[in-house]
Every structure is written in structure tokens, then in C-alpha cells.
Amino acid sequence: MQRLGLLNGWNVSQDTRIWKVESMTKTPAKSLKTARALGLCLVLGASLSACGNARMVRGYVFDPELANAIQPGVDNRQSVKATLGTPTVTSTFSDKTWYYVSTIVRVRPVFWPDPKDHRVLAVAFNDKGVVSDVENYDISTMRHINPVKDKTPTYGRSLNFFQQIFGSIGRFSGQAPVGSSDTPGPNG
User: pTM above the 0.90 mark?
Assistant: First the structure.
């Protein structure tokens, strides 16, 4: 038998009396099964990757060795800032307490982030800027609060969308603005 080679995707062979043509592709039933299996693998892979957990650090990256290095009566503002960096939050009414807040959360695709570790390092300073106290809080001292969902009352009218858009029609006299064309402005 003599081979004539590849002709437009078909393997053609010639016998002395018969042309024999063989297809190089699979039958439709086999290719459909392969496509289904591939599609199933892709769907399962995508769904399993969406279920993965990720851990994320929010805020200050807490280092216990650096936190233990801060000594009351020894360190001052400059040494604390050089050791720990800029504080996450300072106290509201004075600059006497610096807070370094670190939270490690587990992030899942559909759910709210779930805190796994929460640390707050509070460094208090005296009037001279020397460390007077160092407090270390963890997740056991964390409290969950539920803010009130009520609205803060404001004075004035409550306008809907259309009142806000069309409310200014007819309020103005139609005169040219001050400073345009021949009307001088306040500065001449």
C-alpha cells in the first residue's frame, strides 16, 4: 500500500485498486464526551478556587519583639516612632496616647471578613513625652458594637429627586450675572 500523504486534514492511502480515506478526527460521540469532561473539570476547579480562604492583615503589622522593646520611663516619642513607626491612631483630645492597631482577618468570597487575631498596643506618654504606660490588648478584649440605624434629624425640607432637579426653575429673575458684559463686578 502506498501513502499519498495528508490532504486537507484527511489521511489518504492508495491501494492498487481502492482509495482508502481515513479521518484524523475523533467521532462526534467521543469529542462530546471529552468536551463534557473538560467543562466539568473547569467548573469544579473554578468553584473550588472560590471557596478558598485568605488571611489578610489590616492595620499595623504587629511584631511582639518590637512591642516588648518599649519600656516605660526609658523611651520617648522619637524612640517609639523609630521602633514601631507612625501610630495607627492617636488619642482624640490630646496627643498623649498612641494606638497601634493590628487585625488579622479571614476573608471568604461571600461572607463578611472574620477577625482571627486582633491586637492593640496603646503607648501612653507623660507631659514630657516619655512613655508612662504600655498596654497590650488582644481579641478577648474586643467588643462588637451595633451602631444605631436611625437618621440624624436635619433642619429644612426633605426633597425628593425631582424636587432637587426642578426646584430652582423660576427662582431667579433672569438678569445677567454680576460682572458679565456691561455690568461691573464688585471689584470694578
Answer: no
